[in-house]
Amino acid sequence: FLNIFLIGPARCYRQIKNKPYPKSRYCRGVPDPKIRIYDVGMKKKGVDEFPFCVHLVSWEKENVSSEALEAARIACNKYMAKFAGKDAFHLRVRVHPFHVLRINKMLSCAGADRLQTGMRGAFGKPQGTCARVDIGQVLLSVRCKDSNSHHAQEALRRAKFKFPGRQKIIVSRKWGFTKYNRADYLKWKSENRIMPDGVNAKDLLPFMELNIFCFPTTVFIVFLKAKVRVYNVQLLGCHGPLANRQPGRAFLKASS
Question: Coiled coil where (predicted)?
Fold first, then answer.
């Protein structure tokens, strides 16, 4: 309550009005953000352990303070640990409070009217941090087993009340925190095309395909119709005779 009294309610700071103002050597004396932990739960569980994923998505363009992010993290973590188990989920805060908020402090003691300068020199001093979020940006994400999906949605519903503005709870079609759909993930895993990589997964197809590289001043011998032709490989350029090249044929030039 004392912190709210010092910085004011969220309606004073939620509107995005100015350019990003991060902490730097020109912006010193910034207090540390209230949120210090961004991954909660079983964050080292493999990608195959938690297939279900649900997001809390912002439906407004606004500032979200670090105090609100910390309160939402605590509320979501407390509910999931109580009803699903502390080893049955992974919660991740997806936004970071890098934007610095300023305040032009006014004196309210007796005789303050002699000391105050009003709006003269009104560039305030740093008093907190917030995250600038856009419409459709994910605030919180929870991955767990399918049996705990209703607990994850209820936990995010309770975390919604810690934020200003409007948010939506959206169930992801992806496998956990990966970028692959659940059907594709299972199919490609059976084909050994997917390799687990911590909480994510790697697609091995780009490494399986034949990649053609272009090396300068390298001589290729091409056997065509029992004749040997020597081609000099040149770098793809944007000036000279190679500028108006045909796709796929520009770097081959028959040697005279």
Answer: none
